[in-house]
Structures are given as C-alpha cells and as structure tokens.
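Below is a filled-in request sheet from our internal design queue. Each sheet records the structural input a requester submitted and the sequence that came back. We keep these sheets so that new team members can see what a complete request looks like end to end.

REQUESTER: design group, bay 2
PRIORITY: normal
MODE: inverse folding
CHAIN LENGTH: 198
BACKBONE (tokenized):
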C-alpha cells in the first residue's frame, strides 16, 4: 500500500464513522450498514480507490456519496480538508457525515446535499472525482467538471449491484483514457444521470 494512503488510514478512526452498535466491527475488512440502505465501504476497497486516484496535496477532489464521512476524511488527509467537496443526496445522512467529520477534526470538508450524478459545478474543475456508489456509465456532468489530466475513479456497471472500478483520465484534448480495474459491488448511484429511484 502507498505510504500516504496507509498514513491516512492510520490517522482516521473508522469507529467514529459507524453507529455505536457496530464500533466493535469497525476494523473488519467488510462494508458495514450506515442506515438508509447505504454502507461504509470495506477498507481494502477504499484503499484500492485511493491508490488508483494517485492524489497529491492541494488537488481538488469531489467525492460522490458522503455516507458517514469516512471516505471524505481519508481524502482530506491526502489533499487537505479545504480541497474536498463531498455530496450526498440524503439530507439526514449528509448531516450525520458532516457531524462525524467535524468531531474528528475534518470540519473544513464541504458537505453538500444534492444529486451526485450531476456533480457540483460551482466548485469545478476538480482534479479527481471519486464515487462511492455504482453508476451505469460515467455521468456526462462529471466529465464536464474534471480538470485536464484529472481522474474519475468510479464503480461502473450495467447492474445496480455489480460493477468494475473504472479509472478515467482526461487527456489534454478533452478525451478520456479509460482503464478497468477491480470488480466491485457498491450501492447504486441514484440520480438524473445515473440509476432511477424507482
């Protein structure tokens, strides 16, 4: 594991981002439920995504799917909390994530409520967009909001529950270099440019 990614995991207490009755399970390498049909991803999957993103201090990151705030805290360790925007469609979950981040010293992360499939254009362009929910394809909005040589790291698949991790890097001419990585299974990304809520 990349040393900076390892250091981020050592710095962020995962037990502070799960419900009290699951604290004893916080360091198992498995997804855990966080309510509203959502999960906190397995540490090994998050580590793979962070390594694929290749983040550097000062880069601007948009995380799609705040959840409990754990992923945003790890991102903050890598690029600086002031450079992280995380968006969550469920307002109650966003508020819980915001409180977890503030309590653990990552209150400078910007937590927004909205449709993650549409990105967050007011803070664009981003050097990296990282999604913690699976989409049927890369939403056009993300491609529009990524900087030159920026990376999109997202689970993409034709099934709402089965995806492959895709790393899309924007070339200087605006086209994308697509690479497929690890097979994965994330909760579906619901939104105007993703899966329907029906």
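RETURNED SEQUENCE:
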């Amino acid at each position: 594991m990349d040393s900076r990614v390892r250091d981020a995991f050592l710095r962020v207490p995962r037990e502070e981002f799960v419900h009290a009755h699951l604290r004893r399970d916080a360091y198992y390498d498995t997804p855990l439920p966080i309510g509203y049909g959502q999960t906190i991803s397995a540490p090994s999957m998050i580590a793979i995504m962070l390594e694929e993103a290749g983040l550097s201090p000062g880069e601007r990151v948009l995380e799609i799917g705040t959840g409990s705030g754990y992923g945003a805290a790890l991102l903050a360790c890598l690029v600086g909390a002031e450079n992280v925007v995380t968006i969550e469609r469920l307002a109650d979950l966003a508020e819980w994530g915001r409180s977890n981040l503030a309590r653990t010293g990552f209150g400078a992360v910007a937590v927004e409520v909205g449709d993650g499939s549409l990105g967050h254009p007011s803070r664009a362009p981003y050097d990296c967009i990282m999604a913690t929910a699976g989409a049927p394809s890369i939403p056009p909005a993300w491609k529009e909001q990524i900087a030159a040589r920026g990376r999109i790291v997202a689970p993409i698949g034709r099934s709402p529950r089965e995806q492959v991790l895709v790393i899309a890097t924007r070339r200087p001419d605006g086209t994308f270099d697509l690479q497929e990585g690890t097979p994965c299974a994330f909760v579906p990304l619901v939104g105007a440019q993703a899966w329907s809520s029906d």
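SHEET NOTES:
- The longest strand covers residues 146-159.
- The helical segments are 3-11, 43-53, 70-79, 91-103, 140-145.
FILED BY: M.R.
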